[in-house]
Amino acid sequence: AQSVTQLGSHVSVSEGALVLLRCNYSSSVPPYLFWYVQYPNQGLQLLLKYTTGATLVKGINGFEAEFKKSETSFHLTKPSAHMSDAAEYFCAVSDNQGGKLIFGQGTELSVKP
Amino acid sequence: DVKVTQSSRYLVKRTGEKVFLECVQDMDHENMFWYRQDPGLGLRLIYFSYDVKMKEKGDIPEGYSVSREKKERFSLILESASTNQTSMYLCVIQGVNTEAFFGQGTRLTVV
Fold first, then answer.
1. Out of B40, B45, B95, closest to residue A100 by CB
2. Is residue A91 within 8 Å of A6, Cβ to Cβ?
3. Could you report the per-residue pLDDT of A94-105, keeping only the tens digit for each?
4. In A, residues 6-35, which contact B (CB 8 Å cutoff)?
5. Residue B97 and residue A97: Cβ atoms within 8 Å?
């Protein structure tokens, strides 16, 4: 069975600081990996995804994530946080592009001025 | 634009009532999913369907059932609502090799 663990339910950073949100997964087949963002009172929006190929994936709003098979990780980073990045972030894994998504518990990101 | 429409944005039901949550899509996608979203627990998969009249249990199916009589419609049924089913319910659709599209959610309160 697939599963996702997000380390840290709350992360707080200062504006301009590095954002690092951690995600580890387990999967018995090559995984498809996703990061979604949910702004307050809004629906989930795809940030980026890894299917095959290049392990460093770039997404919207300056975010990127690196698939590390040896570490079973897919951590999300952004070099410089902006106030508008404050939201909840979800990591998800699937065994194919159209299949069921298994989500992590979510990490709430706060950005301090 | 892909449309995933959930029949209600907010619902308040009494304990023991039978509750129907409807999801309709206009993109002819095969795969449809029902999740519930709770603070600190993320999104948890209740049921899913890859075809008409097909259904599979997700991780937390207890207390729920589903119906998919037509490709575009996937219904989640709470046979006898209980207070622990108070939650945000999300319908998600995917085609083969496409993005996931999310409905706007139904916030269900069981009193």
1. B45
2. yes
3. 887 678 899 999
4. 6, 9, 34
5. yes
